[in-house]
Design goal:
The protein has nine helices and no strands. The chain is mostly helical and about 210 residues long.
Length: about 210
């Protein structure tokens, strides 16, 4: 039973992170931002962006709850607010809109004017934006500090980041085989999954609040 619970938690973490980062959804962004780059330079930019994003995820995974505790924000309040934010991201994915939780139009314009795109906008906010940070903090909080659950989150994050890096590295091949329509269809399916995960976070926050305030 305990083993089953750990596996379900791992699947939940993997689905949540994979959906909010959306590796396939990064393909058109990478194609636009790296147009004209040599293959070696493009690879360096993608790897650097992935490493920076991993660092951001680790920092907020370790210190996120402490930061919010120091601000007087309770776990259930953040669970509800975070779930609401993720639900808005899911809505944008379902309707094919650009999500402000990943990149705003102003940020997109600034990105096109920058020479080094690995930090901005690839690492932040495309890979480790507000949605990703919110997800990792919520997952760490729901783990209850159990080492095996924290390890499950770390493995899920590593798998997702590797998938994101792989998708960006072979973005040209993906674009040729799947096409823009295929990417949009997959993004909508992932949006449905993210909506379900976000709703669960909100329900968990409400249930915890009710239990702690009878």
């Amino acid at each position: 039973m305990l083993q089953s619970g750990r596996m379900l938690f791992f699947v939940k973490a993997l689905v949540a992170l994979f959906t909010v980062i959306d590796p396939v959804g990064l393909v058109p962004v990478v194609l636009t931002l790296t147009a004209g780059m040599a293959a070696a330079e493009r690879t360096t930019v993608i790897i650097r962006a992935t490493v920076i994003a991993a660092g951001v995820i680790v920092v907020f995974g370790v210190l996120g709850n402490a930061i919010f505790s120091s601000l007087g924000v309770t776990p259930e309040a953040f669970s509800i607010a975070g779930g609401a934010l993720l639900f808005l991201v899911a809505i944008d994915m379902l309707f094919g809109r650009q999500s402000g939780a990943r990149e705003t139009p102003r940020e997109a314009r600034e990105a096109r004017m920058r020479e080094d795109i690995s930090v901005f906008p690839l690492a932040i906010p495309m890979i480790s934006g507000p949605g990703t940070i919110t997800t990792i903090i919520l997952l760490v909080d729901s783990s209850g500090g159990a080492p095996l659950y924290l390890a499950a989150i770390a493995i899920a994050a590593a798998i997702t980041l590797l998938a994101a890096a792989a998708a960006m590295l072979i973005s040209l091949q993906i674009q040729k085989r799947v096409g823009t329509t295929g990417i949009l269809v997959l993004s909508r399916v992932l949006g449905m999954l993210l909506a379900a995960v976000a709703t669960q976070f909100i329900l968990n926050g409400i249930a915890t609040f009710i239990q702690s305030h009878p």
